[in-house]
Write a structure and sequence with these properties.
Distance between the termini: 24 Å
Order of helices and strands: HHH
Structural class: mainly alpha
Helix content: 55-70%
Radius of gyration: 18 Å
């Protein structure tokens, strides 16, 4: 029996462009977060700014790499436990 290596597929270019277009307003939130951080201090940063900034990072990670971010969870059955 031969082992097949699972090569992750890259998202098509048109999907990546659409993600970038939809996520582009979040760049303003990241700018607002940085402005608030440097001008008003970290006490004025809201939770929604942090959440939208994280969504922006995840979206642009997907656009640049072509792969959605993965959480690598260990399966106990694969480790022989």
């Amino acid at each position: 029996m031969t082992e097949q290596l699972s090569v992750p597929k890259v998202l098509p270019a048109n999907v990546r462009v659409m993600i970038a277009l939809v996520a582009s307003p979040t760049l303003l939130v990241v700018g607002m977060l940085l402005y608030t951080l440097f001008v008003d201090g970290w006490q004025k940063i809201s939770i929604s700014m942090i959440i939208f900034s994280l969504l922006c990072v995840l979206a642009y990670y997907t656009v640049i790499t072509g792969h959605p971010p993965r959480l690598r969870l260990k399966n106990p059955k694969q480790n022989g436990v």
